[in-house]
Sequence to fold (408 residues):
Amino acid sequence: MISKKTLITRDNFDKLILPIYNPIPFIPIKGKGSRIWDQKGKEYIDFSGGIAVTSLGHCHPILNKTLKNQSKMLWHLSNIFTNEPALRLAKKLLSSSFASRIFFANSGAEANEAAFKLARYYSSKIYNFKKNKIISFYNSFHGRTFFTVSVGGQSKYSNNFGPKPAGIVHASFNDINSVKNLIDHDTCAVVVELIQGEGGVIPANLTFVQALKELCKQYNVLLIFDEIQTGIGRTGKLFYYEYYAITPDILTIAKSLGGGFPISAMLTTNEVASVIAPGIHGTTYGGNPLACAVAESVIDIINTKKVLSGVEKKSKKIISELNIINKRFKLFTEIRGRGLLIGIVLKPNVSHNIHKILNFSFSEGVVFLTAGNNVIRLAPSLIIKELDIIEGMKRFYRALEKYLSRKE
Fold:
């Protein structure tokens, strides 16, 4: 399986690509299920899931077939038309959620951009133009457009780009008093990740979300749930808000929705959508028939009792294996998250070596992510095989052995 294109190496990245990423040394050229292979034929077990994107693993046969069939029909139309795959997907997502209306885009950032614009537009039309403040949370992440990165609660991503959009404030996550100190009648929206993914895989407390909902009602504020990372089965339900029995006014999804094909969506109610007219917002590629056809197949597979219940079983298996590993090495303080979004919190005396641990893991043939400065994040395929879980954990065990026996 060695790539014949030997001139395409990791060194080419440094010469050709804008250096906003720092990719790992090897280049994958093939994937199947939860395994990938690099140019030299080395195999890796993938617990990164394309950052929670490849929800059905690599090159799922049904998705391959769907994409091939749709590619023979229509690739692109633009938003001067609608198309059958988009309408079918919309119907399935809306019938499985609180929402009545949907907007398709291409990335999580675009879905959130649409959500924030809609919240401000709705509030200016229904109430007054001063009602435009957005409350977000420290350590949150909502995308990389200038608006969404400013709403996100990590200034390292938004500083040095010039004046930031006004009317954005940040509260402390899971601290309702912090929100109470900021919310007022000029607030149009509160946006929250029910699990802060990039911020460290930190779930929102039930009492906190309940209190947020009540505050939003009190001040006529729209509640936005950012489920870019938690939506579409990642936590064992189609949407994570189902565990809280609390519905938002606006919901954003992406990542797992396309199983690797770029697509995102913003869902909302008829009431909020009532202010929208043609031309208020748009996107050239949103609702692309190729993307929507693939996403429909993703939903058909994931939104089943077998797959969703399987997420919980696989989660328990991974956590059980991690607890066994930690009993041996005592490097973790906590294992947290929900379903197949799992965070391994490293002890303070280890966290500064998180990238060394990941590098040892790569060398042993297993791939993880980070979340913040001290958390190893797992977001594998929702249908990862138990055999892959066991083998992946064995490789992680060996990686930690080598990490602890290293010579500085």
